[in-house]
């Protein structure tokens, strides 16, 4: 099969396009004809060697954790899927599994879902890691109805889902992004947009019940000043707690939390329900053919793309 793979850690230049042996289905596994794969930060961090799995690396490695496609074959123990079913899902490549940036991928039945009615392959491939991360990050704020939420990196992969999900849950959403993306943030459901390049949010005199930092680089001192009493800051790059953070939480209730991905079945179901109700729409403005995946990685690592970047196969 044709695939994108790398045989050493490094930048986009280490990615190769060529032939890799076809995979085989084991128990509780499916072989899927891949139609689309979306990129996440974890994909290029794994390729760079920043997210090495335990032990010596095994090459070649195929990147790509989020995918959508058509079931080709099922292994023993798979009863909910059959050949020709349209599906999407997630591959935990960080644990050492081969990714989906290939014509075929092997996936666990526990991390595969039927494609919701009306959802395109590109949209489905954009969902898993980013949308589930946004959903889990927002959970730190509890019931968001009537609450004020600030989303930093509001038009990126995780952020554009967070804006929509917070709005769908009844929050008043302030989006922080570049001015050139203000139109998209408002379209996604933000009631106000802050240009991070020209405006320090602390100067606006606003405080928030929840800050979801999808970009992950807000400074802790500034975060505390922006939070209401008992407010929560959730970051996709959670920098841990310390004695000072513990004391702040004890006296003011202000909390630091992680916005990591959770992939329970009920999480997938919740994401799908927002889509079917028209409250969640994956933004895919940049697509690439498989052989040009290195260009997709370069765009992703530049950090300026809107929504998700998808490789078509």
Helix count, DSSP H or I runs of 4 or more residues: 9
Q: State the name of the first-level CATH class of the largest domain.
A: Alpha Beta
Beta-strand share of residues: 25-35%
Low-confidence stretches: none
What is the second-level CATH architecture of the largest domain?
Alpha-Beta Complex
Within CATH, the superfamily of the largest domain carries the name Medium-chain alcohol dehydrogenases, catalytic domain
Mean pLDDT: 93
How far apart, in Å, are the first and last alpha carbons?
11 Å
Instruction: Describe the main β-sheet briefly.
Output: 7 strands, mixed
Number of domains: 2
Name the overall outline. Answer: globular
Helical percent range? 25-40%
Order of helices and strands: EEEHEEEEHHEHEHEEHEHEHEHE
Multimer state: single chain
Q: From the helix content, strand content and strand pairing, which structural class follows?
A: alpha/beta
Give the total of beta strands: 15
CATH fold naming of the largest domain: Quinone Oxidoreductase, Chain A, domain 1
Question: What's the alpha carbon Rg, rounded to whole Å?
Answer: 20 Å
Which characteristics define this entry?
313 residues, alpha/beta, Quinone Oxidoreductase, Chain A, domain 1, 9 helices, 15 strands, globular
């Amino acid at each position: 099969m044709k695939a994108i793979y790398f045989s050493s850690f490094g930048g986009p230049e280490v990615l190769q396009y060529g032939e890799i042996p076809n995979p085989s289905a084991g128990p509780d596994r499916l072989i899927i004809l891949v139609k689309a794969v979306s990129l996440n930060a974890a994909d290029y961090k794994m390729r760079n060697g920043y997210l090495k799995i335990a032990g010596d690396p095994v090459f070649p490695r195929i990147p790509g954790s989020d995918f959508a496609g058509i079931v080709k074959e099922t292994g023993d123990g798979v009863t909910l899927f059959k050949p020709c079913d349209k599906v999407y899902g997630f591959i935990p490549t960080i644990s050492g599994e081969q990714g989906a940036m290939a014509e075929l991928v092997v996936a666990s039945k526990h991390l595969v879902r039927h494609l919701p009615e009306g959802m395109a392959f590109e949209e489905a491939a954009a969902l898993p890691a980013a949308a589930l991360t946004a959903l889990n990050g927002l959970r730190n704020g509890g019931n968001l109805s009537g609450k004020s939420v600030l989303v930093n990196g509001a038009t990126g992969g995780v952020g554009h889902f967070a804006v929509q999900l917070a709005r769908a849950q009844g929050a008043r959403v302030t989006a922080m992004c570049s001015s050139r993306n203000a139109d998209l943030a408002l379209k996604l459901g933000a009631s106000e947009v802050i240009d991070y390049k020209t405006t320090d949010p602390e100067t606006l005199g606003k405080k928030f019940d929840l800050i979801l930092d999808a970009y992950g680089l807000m400074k802790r001192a500034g975060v505390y000043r922006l939070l209401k009493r008992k407010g929560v800051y959730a970051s996709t790059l959670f920098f841990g707690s310390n004695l000072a953070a513990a004391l702040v939480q004890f006296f003011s209730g202000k909390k630091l939390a992680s916005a990591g991905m959770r992939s329970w079945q009920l999480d997938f179901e919740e994401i799908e329900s927002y889509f079917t109700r028209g409250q969640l729409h994956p933004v895919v403005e940049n697509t690439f053919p498989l052989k040009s995946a290195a260009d997709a990685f370069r765009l992703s690592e530049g950090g300026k793309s809107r929504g998700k970047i998808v490789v078509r196969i």
